[in-house]
């Protein structure tokens, strides 16, 4: 009797284990991601994850950012279920979560969700629920060449105004030596030049829409933003600036051709890396500038984050993966392999309290301050009906932002005046917003 | 001649291809036609409703619409001009008795084997980049300032890239035609003292008319659908200076995820493409008989 | 060439032809050179002599295994072309040898199916693929690529078949040849160069298709067009790596093209020669 029972119990247990093992053996995660350096590093470390989770296999789909966005958006909107983990930004998360396309994350106690930097966590949460875990996050700041500043006899204060920046750029420009005072994004795209120009407009006191969703490009603030942007770039910028995006400017700065570059904080680790940057030892940092009298420093906040679509059939394994890839342990793993500077920045408070990181990353303090200062709930000093900092978190923004970016880029290329570009932006945006039903 | 039996057999042999292509044409066409009358945005799937003619009206009143049509035509005509004229010149050059003819021919047809996005990437980064491109190096060597191709001459740059891709195709077809030219006739003309340009105008060119027609016809069909090169290089800009009709549809479909609008644009594009095709057949079709 | 050409003229033509050929080939050549440079060299300015490092190829390979997309590209290109030939040969044969009044119209209609912009029909096709389980499968993409290139295949074969003189067929028929004999012993040998050239051209077209192959795949069926899309705009300008990935994506078809250019050229007339 007892033996039979024991045997029976044993068999059941065996079956159960076998069942679980079989279920886990069958799980293959398809992860869609962008081809940025930090993500490529994550791919390289996949073996560590699969070794710890033998039941889960991982397949990567790495695509260029725009193609990735097209593919992933189509998949999730048609409930295609091609992917189990998506790499998306702070722009998509709130919109998609509201559509019910994303699974809320339950990452367990060990994950220490309270360690996430509050501004980032808020940007990835809807109604208090976290829908995506940040892989790395960024704000924007000023990066400048301390050696050139010294030679030109200028000091850039820790919290500069646009007048300070313009003045410094003028003094540090020497076009005969291919040394340009300022490099800013000019390549059209809602995530390229419009990311920067929108943040700059915020710091000028401008806003995209008033509370009735009417576009505001005819306002004095926008006019000042665009004319100052164009003036700086025309006088002190590099040639061909209208096709320069993040990558091109990074490369120019690393080669010593830019004195000032205002862009995402994540760039700091690249420009201070002696392996790729010729100016690694001479980079100083300052906050994103503001216009005299406007209490606003752009409110730039972006986080490349991992999320799970509701159409995934391996949600549990996907949660396990996300918990691993955005954990403190993952940071330690990267630090152990490649040093603390290579750790994905901007997501966890504990990283910025870590003395090793502070010692190796001279940009740590400025990065965390910039991220903490970003307010994505109210990007402008004026009242706004939308959320988002360097973008407007509505589905239509990709199209509208890119169309406006095209106009501003054309103005930078000298093919139309600032007034014409603003007028075209105003009428295009009004048209699109009327179509989408925002303007009654 | 053809008996009824062979006629029946011929019909049977044609049928699979025709049926397949018919299905391939009609199913997407009907679905697109249907979508073109809907308010259907992929990002708001719950809010689909009947739109009537609104999508058409909206697409047609797009500020970039007429510029896009103009750009489409300029792009097609520009590339055709370069590839036909260049193709004839290169074909005649390769046809001369030269050393290393085989290798020269291989080099000339190579661009045809390059994937369009790769071709665009190569030209954008390696050749035309205002700081690091080869053309910028050449400009600096000559002591002038580098040209920012995609900002200053966006459409011209794209025409150059696309023409580079299609030049081999035109060259090959024109070369085959040239080689079938009756040499005795040429020699006779030469004996009679006809100058080179006259031989070219009255013998070579008429002989190549058919080949030129084929090049124009096939290339037009492919050129009307160009968008990858634009996406990689200028993104349709600056402003809308290099936006063609296909790219305008791309913008609606993949940036705005406006399926209804893109469908309406697609239908408009098909109608325009067919108008161009009919015009082409009228103009050059008789060469094909 | 029967005409006597002076040595001087020949040298002149040779130099001109080589200059033009090198100019046209230069972008590809420079990509190959850049792929053998280090990243620092790649943006350091014009230089035709690389340091011949294979570093970039190794990095590309370690980031994204080349062999799976390569295999997919081969399967898709060859598979779709063979499939297209199976459907197109009988159709083109019938049109060429038993033409009707409408044959030319049918041909034009077939070509016109290529005029629908792919982006406009993406969502319908996407939904069909999703609902039928064809998404990210080789079979689905093979059929799709076959349909895309079918009009061109039929057209090429038709124009080639039409050049085969009808009298030969009639003579064969007089001699009592059956339809089978006719196809096997008379037509096939004459048609092979045309079929070979069609095959090559369509392998090239299918290999280089870069819209549907990216939009309708994730991992299982993703070919080299998707492989290159994962290198096109990384953070920073990694041109040596981009060049290496480009070389890897185009090299197979380039080499195939070089070796088979005689066959490719022989049948590539689209009826241009009469």
From TrEMBL, chain A:
Organism annotation? Paracoccus acridae
- Keyword set for this entry? Signal
- What highest taxon heads this organism's lineage? Bacteria
Claim: Electron transport is one of the keywords in the record? no
Q: Where is the signal peptide?
A: 1-23
Q: What is this protein called?
A: Sugar ABC transporter substrate-binding protein
Q: Which family does it belong to?
A: Belongs to the bacterial solute-binding protein 1 family.
Major place of residence: periplasm
Designated gene of the protein: smoE
Location within or outside the cell: Periplasm
Automatic annotation (TrEMBL), chain B:
Gene3D superfamilies reported in the protein's UniProt record = MetI-like
The cross-references to InterPro entries, in alphabetical order and at most eight, read: MetI-like (IPR000515), MetI-like_sf (IPR035906)
Keyword check for Amino-acid biosynthesis:
no
**SUPFAM superfamilies of this UniProt entry?**
MetI-like
Q: Which Pfam families match?
A: BPD_transp_1
Q: Where are the transmembrane segments?
A: 12-37, 73-94, 106-123, 155-179, 200-228, 259-281
Q: How does it sit in the membrane?
A: Multi-pass membrane protein
Q: Where in the cell is it found?
A: Cell membrane
Coarse class of the protein's main subcellular location: membrane
Q: Which UniProt key words apply to this protein?
A: Cell membrane, Membrane, Transmembrane, Transmembrane helix, Transport
Domain ABC transmembrane type-1, first and last residues per copy:
69-280
Q: Which family does it belong to?
A: Belongs to the binding-protein-dependent transport system permease family.
Protein name listed in UniProt:
Sorbitol/mannitol ABC transporter permease
Annotated organism of origin:
Paracoccus acridae
From TrEMBL, chain C:
Q: How does it sit in the membrane?
A: Multi-pass membrane protein
Keywords assigned: Cell membrane, Membrane, Transmembrane, Transmembrane helix, Transport
Q: Which residues form the signal peptide?
A: none
Gene3D superfamilies with a match to the protein in the record: MetI-like (1.10.3720.10)
Q: Where in the cell is it found?
A: Cell membrane
UniProt-listed Pfam families: BPD_transp_1
All copies of the ABC transmembrane type-1 domain together span 70-260
**Predominant place of localization:** membrane
What is the top-level taxon of the source organism?
A: Bacteria
The name of this protein is: Sorbitol/mannitol ABC transporter permease
From which organism does this entry originate?
Paracoccus acridae
